[in-house]
Amino acid sequence: MVAPITAAERATLATALPRWSLVPDRDALHQRWVFSDFNAAFGFITRVALLAEQHQHHPEWSNVWNRVDITLTTHDAGGLSLRDLHLATAIDALTA
Amino acid sequence: MVAPITAAERATLATALPRWSLVPDRDALHQRWVFSDFNAAFGFITRVALLAEQHQHHPEWSNVWNRVDITLTTHDAGGLSLRDLHLATAIDALTA
Amino acid sequence: MVAPITAAERATLATALPRWSLVPDRDALHQRWVFSDFNAAFGFITRVALLAEQHQHHPEWSNVWNRVDITLTTHDAGGLSLRDLHLATAIDALTA
Amino acid sequence: MVAPITAAERATLATALPRWSLVPDRDALHQRWVFSDFNAAFGFITRVALLAEQHQHHPEWSNVWNRVDITLTTHDAGGLSLRDLHLATAIDALTA
């Protein structure tokens, strides 16, 4: 099992990860990206895949041409854990 | 606009592309793959991305760790076109 | 066989593709990129791979951590062909 | 600095990593792969990139269409370290 985030950590989400939204009906974060085309979208997807393997924490994600949707949650925590916050921060740094 | 597949082409789906299923409520093909881990799944994803760019036809797809779901349809045909059948055949050849 | 570029096309290289250098002892173009880290370098590599598959023309290339070296030439032309100029232009557009 | 491999570790190379060759004039391991086409080669390249980021140890490598050459050495060790042996073992497992 992995520890869920604390109430204090949860209170920082809106300011620390303003680009991510909480998902209705699940304890998870979501962000959507729209790129100029598939080539740009898949370059981003590959960079996120490398981050995921480095963090040993993997997204639920989907792609349709230039659009990428990423949802982060931790199955072993039954919701958000610090792993999600760390990976979300690293993903944001790719397109800072 | 792109031409939808003909009734004759549609009749070949079950024998020509037996690994793909028709999606309920849409005119689209779906297949799921389960790999040993994320590394293997993402190697496959990258190979499909290269095929998609070569075919200039792109899937709707999602990934969760070792699982890859691909849905093929042609927006400009309002459903299945030969583009989907060609890309489906090329994807199948990757894991033949 | 593929046609080599003409003398007129060759005369445009320095202005049309100023980031590329002619390679000594071969009729080929070379460019080096240095990124912030491996993640950024491999995102670029993947985007070039997608372009190559779309163009059906492939680079000779190497990578060491944040550095990417790409050499373009056309074996079937015995040197530079329009395929190299088109792929070089498309690669430049990725980091324009 | 990273410790170089010991004489005992070096003595195991031929049996533990028989697919890799020692490089003349450098303390490094090399292997070449030849795939059916660029698509297959780049799928492999991507899987090795994911391993490299997971190991935080990166190859010197090159690709020409269906051919991939990988050289492993550790700059901070002045030659082979256990990092190279671990990454080489992980790469071999991809095509076992």
Task: Describe the structure in your own words.
Four copies of one chain form a homotetramer. Chain A has a four-stranded antiparallel β-sheet with strand order 1-2-4-3, with helices on one face. Chain A contains four helices and four strands, in the order H-H-E-E-H-E-E-H. The longest helix of chain A is centred in the middle third of the chain and has 18 residues. The first copy, chain A, is globular and about 40 Å long. The model of chain A has no long low-confidence stretch (mean pLDDT 97). Chain A is an alpha+beta fold and 96 residues long. The interface between A and D is small, with 7 and 7 residues.
Topology:
The structure is a homotetramer of 96-residue chains.
Chain A: H1 7-11, H2 13-16, E1 21-22, E2 29-34, H3 38-55, E3 60-64, E4 67-72, H4 82-94
Antiparallel strand pairs in A: 1-2, 2-4, 3-4
Helix pairs in contact in A: 3-4
Labels describing this entry:
42% helix, alpha+beta, 96 residues, homotetramer, 4 helices
Q: Please state the oligomeric state of the protein chains shown.
A: homotetramer
Provide the spatial order of strands within the biggest beta sheet of chain A.
1-2-4-3
Distance between the termini of chain A: 32 Å
Radius of gyration of chain A: 13 Å
Quick gist of this model?
Chain A is of the alpha+beta class and 96 residues long. Chain A has four helices and four strands. Chain A has a four-stranded antiparallel β-sheet with strand order 1-2-4-3, covered by helices on one side.
